[in-house]
Design brief:
The protein is mostly beta strands. The chain has one domain: 6 Propeller (Neuraminidase). The chain is built from one helix and 26 strands. It has a four-stranded antiparallel β-sheet with strand order 1-26-25-24, with no helix packed on it. A hairpin with a 5-residue loop joins β8 and β9. The longest helix has 8 residues. The N terminus is likely disordered.
C-alpha cells in the first residue's frame, strides 16, 4: 500500500474524473463516465464477485466486509469484525476465501459466515501478511504473502517467514507450498479462467509476471508481462489485464498498454467486474468505490 501526503490527496480530489476520449480503445461502453458508487470508508480493498454479480469488499482499517448488491446499488455491512481482510475471492460453491492479514491467516468464509482458518502458520511461524488470493478452476488456491505492517495491527509487525513468497494451497491437503520465491513484494494475483496462466504483480520491482500453471501447483515459464506492478488485478473476456495503483491501467494479452482510467483518489487498490452481465468495472479506491460501465465483460 503506497502512502500519499494530504496535500496531494486534496489536489487530486479537486478535479473530477475526465471523460474518456473517443481515441481510447473501445473496451469502455460508449459515453460511459466514472461514477462514485459509495463513499465514507477509510481504505477499500479486496473486491470479490459472487455468482449473482454482487461485490464483497473490505474497508480494511474498519475491519469489515461490505456487500454491494448490484441489482439495486445498495451497500450493507456483511461481516464485522473480519480479520482486517485484504484480498478475497469466491469459489464455485460460494465460499469466500479471504486474506486475513490482521491475524496472519488465510480464511475460508462459508455462505453462512462460518470462518475456517486454512493457514495459520508455516513451519511453526506465522505468515507475513497474506495479501491477495486467486482460486483455480479445480478449487485450489494461490496467494501472495508480502509484508505491509499496518498501524492497527496488534500482532508482531516484523517479518515472520524467510521470504515474501507466492504460495500454492491444496484445499484437500491444506498444505501451503511456496511456488515463487524470487519476487521482491508479490501483491496482486490473477489467473485465466482456464486455469492455465497466472499473473503476479511484483509491486516492489514495478513488474508483472506471467507463469504457466501446472497441475501439481508448480509454476513454470516465468515471463515478464509488463513493466508495472499492481495492488490488485482483473481480467476481461478478451484477455486484457487491469492493473491498479494510479487509476486503472489496462494491458492487452501481449502486455501492450491500451489505456489508463484515471481515478480521482490517491491510490486505487483493486478492481473487478460486477453486475449480472459482468460489465460494471467496480473499483476500490481509498475512501470511495467507483463504477464504470464497460463494453467488455469480465473473464469468468
Amino acid at each position: 500500500m503506497k502512502k500519499y501526503s494530504v496535500p496531494l490527496l486534496m489536489f487530486l480530489a479537486l478535479f473530477p474524473s475526465p471523460l474518456l476520449s473517443a481515441a481510447e480503445p473501445d473496451i469502455v461502453a460508449s459515453g460511459a463516465k466514472l461514477e462514485v458508487l459509495g463513499e465514507g470508508y477509510i481504505f477499500t480493498e479486496g473486491p470479490a464477485v459472487d455468482a449473482e454479480g454482487n461485490v464483497f469488499f473490505t474497508d480494511q482499517p474498519n475491519d469489515r466486509i461490505v456487500k454491494y448488491t448490484a441489482a439495486d446499488g445498495t451497500f450493507a455491512d456483511w461481516m464485522k469484525p473480519a480479520g482486517h481482510c485484504n484480498g478475497m475471492r469466491f469459489d464455485k460453491a460460494g465460499n469466500l476465501f479471504a486474506c486475513a492479514d490482521g491475524l496472519n491467516q488465510l480464511w475460508s468464509i462459508a455462505p453462512d459466515k462460518k470462518v475456517t482458518v486454512l493457514v495459520e502458520d508455516i513451519g511453526g511461524k506465522l505468515l507475513n501478511g497474506p495479501n491477495d488470493v486467486w482460486v483455480r478452476p479445480d478449487g485450489n488456491l494461490y496467494f501472495t504473502d508480502p509484508l505491509y505492517a499496518r498501524e492497527y495491527w496488534t500482532r508482531d509487525k516484523a517479518m515472520q517467514q524467510p521470504g515474501k513468497y507466492v504460495y500454492y494451497f491444496d484445499v484437500k491437503t491444506r498444505k501451503p507450498v511456496p511456488v515463487a520465491l524470487d519476487l521482491k513484494e508479490p501483491n496482486g494475483i490473477m489467473g485465466t479462467p482456464d486455469g492455465k496462466r497466472l499473473y503476479v504483480a511484483d509491486i516492489g520491482d514495478r513488474k508483472t509476471w506471467s507463469y504457466t500453471v501446472n497441475a501439481d501447483g508448480s509454476l513454470t515459464d516465468k515471463t515478464l508481462f509488463c513493466e508495472m506492478g499492481s495492488d490488485g488485478m482483473a481480467l476481461d473476456a478478451e484477455g486484457n489485464l487491469y492493473l491498479t495503483g494510479k487509476g486503472v491501467t489496462v494491458f492487452d494479452r501481449t502486455g501492450a498498454k491500451l489505456m489508463n482510467i484515471p481515478v480521482p483518489e490517491g491510490w486505487t487498490g483493486n478492481v473487478t467486474f460486477a453486475g449480472k452481465d459482468r460489465q460494471l468495472l467496480f473499483i476500490t479506491a481509498s475512501r470511495k468505490v467507483y463504477g464504470l460501465k464497460m463494453r467488455v465483460k469480465g473473464a469468468y
